[in-house]
Every structure is written in structure tokens, then in C-alpha cells.
Specification:
Layout lengths: L6 H16 L1 H4 L16 H9 L16 H11 L4 H10 L1 H16 L3 H12 L2 H9 L2 H35 L1
Helix pairs in contact: 1-6, 1-7, 3-4, 4-5, 6-7, 6-9, 8-9
């Protein structure tokens, strides 16, 4: 019961509720579809092959690297025993709550007031770019929504540790 009253848990549960209400048509038997959401491959193996192959059947063919989100979907598809459709649904439907949770982790590092952290993380998770990406089936944007606050957190922590390291070097040199 104590854990349910913690701000990150409350934020996550609230955003889950918002995501469930927003996706109620999908949950009662509808299909998840969007302008950028292509049909899911048959298996996780197809995604792994698509990720590592050197030539991709895009337009007239391309030797560019595969989009990075294919790796995330392949990992999830492998965890869900090859059910790529389930992995895609989970990624798109959980982008808002997971984005809010990772934004809260970042805000905890840079903001002191809990209500401000909750507001900032909730606002980040519900910005129109995220909800529009979900509506259009843009997996890359949904994954970036989840991972960008973690990247920012890593940058902030490394800058702080480097400044401590620089102060230590300066004090030793003096």
C-alpha cells in the first residue's frame, strides 16, 4: 500500500488510466493501425534478419542501416515468444506511461519540488507530438519518447560527475 502512494507510481498509474481510456476501442477488439504502422512481420526472427541484413527492400532498395527501433521491437518480440503484434501493441499503448515514468526519473535529478516533477513528467508524456505519434503508429517516436529522458539523465549525471572530477583534479594540482 505504501508503494502505491509514491509519486512515480501514482504518475504511472494515472498515465496508464489515460492510455487505457484513450485506447478503449483497441482494447475491445479493434485493430491497432496508423499511417506509419506497417503490418507486423510473422516472427521475431524476421525482425532480427531485417535488422542485421545489409540491403533493405525500401523504395528501390537501400544499403542504409535499419531503423534503430527494429532492434527494440525484435527484443520485445523475442521476449513475447515471437508475438510481434503483441510487442507492437504494448510499445504503442505503453509509450505514454513509460515516457512519463522515465521523464519523472529525469525530473527527480533536476527538480526539487515533487508536484513540479509530477506536472513536468505528465506534461511530457501527454504532449501532442507523443499522442500524435501513437495515433499514427510511429514506433520510432514512441521509443524515443521513452528513451530520451534516460539519455538526458545520463548526460546530466555525467556532467555532474565530471565537474566533481575537475574540482578534484584542480584541488590536487593546487
Amino acid at each position: 500500500v505504501w508503494a502505491l502512494t509514491r509519486p512515480p507510481v501514482l504518475l504511472f498509474l494515472g498515465l496508464c488510466l489515460v492510455a487505457l481510456v484513450a485506447s478503449r476501442d483497441i482494447l475491445v477488439g479493434g485493430a491497432l493501425a496508423g499511417g506509419a504502422l506497417l503490418p507486423a512481420p510473422d516472427s521475431a526472427w524476421d525482425l532480427w534478419r531485417r535488422y542485421v541484413e545489409s540491403w533493405h527492400p525500401v523504395e528501390l532498395g537501400s544499403d542504409r542501416a535499419a531503423p534503430p527501433y527494429i532492434l527494440v521491437v525484435a527484443l520485445l518480440g523475442t521476449i513475447f515468444v515471437g508475438k510481434i503484434g503483441l510487442a507492437l501493441n504494448l510499445l504503442l499503448l505503453c509509450a505514454v506511461p513509460l515516457g512519463g515514468l522515465t521523464a519523472y526519473l529525469f525530473c527527480r535529478e533536476v527538480l526539487e519540488a515533487r508536484p513540479v516533477r509530477m506536472w513536468a513528467a505528465g506534461t511530457y508524456a501527454l504532449i501532442p507530438a507523443v499522442t500524435g505519434a501513437i495515433a499514427n503508429g510511429r514506433l520510432g517516436t514512441c521509443i524515443a519518447t521513452i528513451l530520451l529522458p534516460l539519455l538526458a539523465l545520463t548526460v546530466v549525471r555525467s556532467m555532474r560527475s565530471n565537474s566533481c572530477l575537475l574540482k578534484m583534479i584542480a584541488s590536487v594540482a593546487a
